[in-house]
Amino acid sequence: MRTILVGVVWLCLGLFLDAMSLNGRRIDTTLDGEGIEAAIKGEKLLKRVRRGWMWNQFFLQEEYTGSDYQYIGKLQSDQDHGNGLVKYVLSGEGAGTIFVIDENNGDLHATRRLDREEKSFYILRATVVNKRTGQKLEPETEFTVKLHDINDNEPHFSKEVYTGSVPERSDIGTSVIQVTATDADDSMYGNSAKLVYSISQGHPYFSVDPNTGVIRTALGPGDMDREQREHYQVVIEAKDMAGQRGGLTGTTVVNITLTDVNDNPPRFTQSIYQFRVPESSKSGSPVGRIQATDRDIGRNAEMYFTIVSGDGMDMFDISTDKDTQEGVITVSKPLDFEKKPSYTVEIQVQNTQVDPRFMSSGSKDMATVRIAVEDVDEPPLFDKASYLMEVKEDAAVGVAVGSVSAMDPDGARSMVKYSIDRRTDMDRVFNVHPGNGSVFLLRSLDREEAAWHNITVTATEYNNPRQSSHVPVYIRLLDINDNAPTFATTYETFVCEKTKAGQRIQTVSAIDADEPSTGHKFFFSLAPEVPHRSNFTVRDNGDNTAGILTRRASYSRLHQSVYLVPVVITDGDYPMQSSTGTLTVRVCTCDREGNMELCNAEALSSSPGLSTGALIAILLCAIILLMIVVLFTALKRQTKQEPLIISKEDVRDNVVSYNDEGGGEEDTQAFDIGALRHPDAAAALEESAKQRRDIIPTDTLLIMPPVNVASRDNGDVREFINQRVLENDCNPTAPPYDSLATYAYEGAGSVAESLSSLGSASSEAEQDYHYLSDWGPRFRKLADLYGAEDSDFS
Questions:
Q1: Measuring CA to CA, which residue among 405, 399, 454 is closest to residue 425?
Q2: pLDDT band for position 186 (cuts 50, 70, 90)
Q3: Which residue of 155, 379, 719, 730 pairs with 711 in a disulfide if CB–CB is 3.0 to 4.6 A?
Q4: Is the pLDDT higher at 134 or at 176?
Q5: Count of structural domains within the chain
Q6: Closest CA to 379 of 456, 462, 438
Q7: Structural domain containing residue 594
Q8: Any idea where the Cadherin domain is (predicted)?
Q9: Among 374, 400, 426, where does a domain finish?
Q10: Rounded Cα distance, 784 and 793, in Å
Q11: pTM beyond 0.85, yes or no
Q12: Residue 701: its pLDDT value, please?
């Protein structure tokens, strides 16, 4: 129960505080749970005041036009006792610029003109401080300054120009389009933003709903006809203040178009049309155009034409040109002025799309079309489109094969002459009589060469050779039995020496170039000149084939190796034709199964063997193999040739390193010292060996500078080395790769002269070394060693 009472107390306090806020006063008092309980028990409460502010509600009217600051209201705190020690401080949106406060008395002012449509309220904060200490006397409190709206904005439509459409002949009240306007003023305050729509231009055709802005038709179907008037311009007005006097107004333009419906049938521009067409016009040739009009547009104006009656229904057709909606009359069958010079037809036109609301299915129009056929000079006309003629292949030259007939269809009936197009009869086998059109033979015929002949006959007017026509003539040759039958192929067979009588050794057949109507029938028999006791006989099988049979049980290849069997072949047609074919039979030795083993020399020569082409192919293969062997041998020899660098001792592109001292002067195997002692002989040897082995020297060699022979004779090593360097630099046959040629020269000027053994005599004669004692104390030891006699060491 206590908890319920506490909740009720809290609810009452909340309602009380809200009421104080609505009355313009705000008391911020905080009670804890114990205080509430004490209040319930009737005990004395201890109240702690957090904030003791009191001020009025702050509302400000927009668009203030006065010269002074606009007064908003007054802030007042219960801490302000009027002694001047309290200072009011303002902060928040626009504080100090838009809003200012008197720090002494709390009066709040707006410094400039405000627009609610730009910003409808401002949130500010205020506090009170002690002027002397600057200490806050009250916590900072937030409050709001709201702007009161005035009717300072006129309505604006979402579009300056609207475009709408409605079908013609619509019922009254048919919706066309909806327009919408807005007002920036406050719709929650007064009628400043309450709009009313009205129509200021467009009566009496349209109306507008004052609340929704929906434009509707105001006249009935009979008055809204697109064919009379298609476009309308309507001006709609929107007024605020609920349309009352003094309200602001905005306008917009609405362009309305009446769309077409199929409410008009097509109509011919005239009731009778007349055309002329030449009788030579081909099928599909245009005769003329007829026109009908329709007040509708687009698909509602599409139409089609039909021929409904008249004597020319089968001779002419009519179609609709999709681009111009005209009826195009064309020829459907060949015309003949001589047979019928004119035609009359009735043509009907109607829409392809019919709207049953406005037109019945009988909304059609009729017109009469008269067509006159013009006479023209026509070429001769054959009585048939083509001719088929037959003639026997044995017909004599000059015999008539058949005839053609043509006549001038014009009234003049000009004479006609006939001729054959020789491009169709290059061999001139046929001809035609120019007067009566009779086709006859110029040459004899043979069906076996050509069974058909196709020619073209031309008919030309005598009076006008340009008028001519052509007709194909097909001539079939009829067969007669003028060819004898023959063997189907060349027959050659064999018979074993040991056989039995009545053994079939071959089956033969025949062919005939003729083609009898009842089919071929051949008869086979031995020739009558064959002796009575022949070696073979012929048995007719009755199916246009015959079997060759033996009449003996044995044959001797040595006695007679080849038999020629004459066979008479006769056909069954009239007149009967026959021929004699010869069958070659060879006598051969056979095994037990009857397989041929050995025949006579003639048979052997005809046995399969190597032909000349095969022998030539084998010979070519042998030659190719021989060439491959020779080429392989040559390549192998080439790989065994001496290489460019003979050994590791070759100085070209080789660096030979020595790290041993050698054997001294007595070691004559390390280097041929005679080359330096006798440079002329060494130069002669080098000249023969210095040519490159991998190229052939040319005659265009660089002229070497002359060598001073005297300098070589005196054994000057430096001159020798310089000469070799010059030769290597100027030699065109020098190797193209890098070479390392090392030369050493000790120089001159030593008191002891050169210690090289190159200047020593090559003989074994004794030398005098006493001059060493003249070189000073450093060489005394050496002079003692070399100056002593050999006997001293013995």
A1: 454
A2: confident
A3: 719
A4: 176
A5: 5
A6: 462
A7: 486-598
A8: 77-157, 158-268, 269-382, 383-487, 487-610
A9: 374
A10: 12
A11: no
A12: 39
